[in-house]
Amino acid sequence: MDVCPLIFEPIYKAKVWGGDALARLLDKKLPPGEPIGESWECADLEAGQSVVARGPMKGRSLHDLVRTWGSDLLGRAAPIDERFPLLIKFLDARQTLSIQVHPDGPAAEALGLRCTVKNEAWHVIDAAAGARIFRGLRQGVGLDDLRSRATNAPESIPSLLNSVPARRGDTFFLPAGTLHALGEGIVVAEVQTPCDVTFRLYDWGRSRAGADAGLHIDEALACVRTDVRYAPFEKKSHVSSVFATITQLVSCPSFKIERVRFVEEFEQDIPYAELVIWIVLDGRGEVRHRGGVESFSRGDVMVLPAGLKNARLRTHAVCNLLEVTIPVESDLAAFDRPMTPPHATAPRGPVQIHIDRPRP
Fold first, then answer.
1. CATH number, span 233-335
2. How far is residue 190 CA from its own chain's centroid?
3. Do 6-228 and 233-335 show the same overall fold?
4. CA nearest to 276, candidates 304, 317, 313, 311
5. Residue 357 per-residue DSSP state
6. What is the C-alpha separation between 64 and 176, in angstroms, rounded?
7. Burial of 55 (0-12, 13-18, 19+ CB in 10 A)
8. Where does residue 350 rank: exposed (0-12), middle (13-18), buried (19+ CB within 10 A)?
9. Are the C-beta atoms of 211 and 323 separated by less than 8 Å?
10. In this structure, are residues 148 and 217 in contact, taking their beta carbons and an 8 Å threshold?
11. CA 20 to 30 Å from 130, out of 81, 256, 310, 349?
């Protein structure tokens, strides 16, 4: 059977810091009475395995499709540990998350861990007035300072981190080794490499149970980097036309994130030659393909396989989405996304001004 667009059943994770904002903001049907902190939308891990929600592949797991479709799904992107190379989540921080860190390669090796390096990015979907994130150590703060506070005055650890305002539409890159925390009153889309190894240094005096129990002070201190850089990976670029606007938000070796806006009642062939993931923030539309029609709306995460042929997008309302791709060793000539493709149907309106999108 031909490959087809994929939308998966959400995997809800109850967290002590979670809430119910994903129902209000993203139309998620949350289990009643539980504080849902995470919704895993595209996952190929032992801790969470995505299953196709509808369409020709309904009921198939993402891991199964990675094995059976291979490059027809991933294109030139390589699987990681024989698994899908990205993990996509929505997070609802009703309370501030723990101050935590993920190991980079050298730290994982030193700790004897066999895990993928976890680089991640947050795109802020909603934020309360005055909301902030914590990202990285303040200038001049060293690991000895951090160790001393962790031992003698853990409640003062937050004062050692950069506290950054978070507003709707902001995007933050968090490479492995970054000490960080998502602040209270923030909902984000999270794009990351497929790893669930987290070491918590400070948890605001909360007690936990089960798999989330406890702190990992020694491991966290072994993973924290003081030389992390963000700006080179957060350079913005923007192109637009009457049909669409495209803004680059994050570009790193693990993934690239762009914010895309399509106008209402717009049609175009889907010209991609590599794996693409759409995180739908607002709007609704459909993708027509050989196997049928796959509709999407706010809160959906749609995977477009690299081998998808003869597919066509149509929007039914203005659509705002995050487009996630994986950088590959290619000139990506066939991956170019024309702003006025040959078979596009333009919405009614005045004469269009066309601005070509530069090739990645």
1. 2.60.120.10
2. 3
3. yes
4. 304
5. P
6. 28
7. middle
8. exposed
9. no
10. no
11. 256
What are the structure tokens assigned to 216, written together?
């990992």
User: Is residue 314 within 8 Å of residue 286, measured between CB atoms?
Assistant: yes
Longest dimension (CA), the chain: 67
Which H or E run includes 144?
helix 143-152
Q: With beta carbons less than 8 A apart as the criterion, state whether 6 and 52 touch.
A: yes
Q: Per DSSP, what are the bridge partners of residue 287?
A: 294, 313
In whole angstroms, what is the distance from residue 220 CA to residue 122 CA?
A: 21
What are the φ/ψ torsions at residue 317 (nearest 5 degrees)? -155, 165
Q: pLDDT by residue (tens digit) across 118-174?
A: 999 999 999 999 999 999 999 999 999 999 999 999 999 999 999 999 999 999 999
Question: Is 209's pLDDT higher than 90?
Answer: no
Q: C-alpha distances in angstroms, 307 versus 1, 2, 267, 311?
A: 12, 8, 20, 10
CATH code: domain 6-228 is: 2.60.120.10
Scan for tokens 């791709």, then name that residue: 325
Query: What are the structural domain ranges in the chain?
Result: 6-228, 233-335
CB-CB neighbours of 322 under 10 Å: 23
- Looking at this protein, which amino acid is placed at residue 326? I
Cα distances (angstroms) measured from residue 136 to each of 204, 231, 315: 17, 13, 40
How far is Cα 132 from Cα 96, in angstroms, rounded to an integer? 9
The alpha carbon dihedral of 151, 152, 153, 157 has a sign of: negative
Give the predicted TM-score (pTM) of the model: 0.90
Task: Single out the residue of 246, 275, 262, 263 nearest to residue 74, CA to CA.
Answer: 275
Q: pLDDT band for position 208 (50/70/90)? A: low
| Cα–chain center distance at 219 | 25
DSSP E strands: which ranges in 2-152? 6-7, 11-19, 36-42, 44-45, 48-49, 87-93, 99-101, 120-127, 132-137
What's CA 147's distance to the chain center, in Å? 31
**Eight-class DSSP state of 130:** T
Rg (CA), the chain: 21
- What's the mean pLDDT when you consider all of the chain? 90
User: Which region, left, alpha or beta, applies to residue 55 given φ > 0 means left and ψ of -120 to 50 means alpha?
Assistant: left
